[in-house]
Amino acid sequence: MAQTHTASHLHDHAHADAHAHTHVHGLGHPQADGITAAPSATLPQIAHGGDIQYLQVLLYGIGGFLLIVVACVATYIFYGYSVNAMKFERQEMEYRGHESAIAARKSVLDNEFKTFSVADAQASKVRVPIDRAMDKVVATYGKR
Which residues, at least 6 apart from 32, have a Cβ–Cβ distance to it below 8 Å? Predict the structure, then answer.
């Protein structure tokens, strides 16, 4: 069972044992209650980074960078394709909405260009079918 000590008693033990060895109150395990006092010379020395494989780290870094670039390019391409597809659909729907107006205008133009009619009675202007007008111009100026 763990021993109970006052703060001053713990300070005395820690000070006395600081230069000797690891001192732990409790179950006899070095990390039982976390109170240790040992000189740094007795602690295990670990060489951190001594066995780093620089080529492997470099390759992982380049691979990660390329993965990010590919993801960005794919996102840009997909976004551009989606936006263009949406624009095309919107334009097509607008065109479909105007089909009846286009058909009506075409009918009026066909009627104006293919039939005789009075354009302006006061100015004595008439409409002549376009085919007939072209034939008349060729006949008039073709003789010269």
Answer: 2, 24, 25, 26
**Amino acid of residue 99:** E
| Separation CA 41–CA 109 (nearest Å) | 103
Confirm if 80 and 86 have CB atoms less than 8 A apart. no
Looking at the whole model, is its pTM more than 0.85?
A: no
Distance CA 85, CA 114 (A): 40
Closest CA to 42 of 30, 33, 51, 34: 30
Token pair belonging to 6: 């006052």
| CA 135 from centre of chain | 63
Q: What is the mean pLDDT of residues 18-42?
A: 53
C-alpha to C-alpha distance for 135 and 140, rounded to whole angstroms: 9
Q: Which helix (H) or strand (E) holds 43?
A: none
d(CA 14, CA 25) in angstroms, rounded, equals 10
Q: What does the pLDDT look like over 56-110, one tens digit per residue?
A: 999 999 999 999 999 999 999 888 888 888 888 888 877 777 777 888 888 888 7
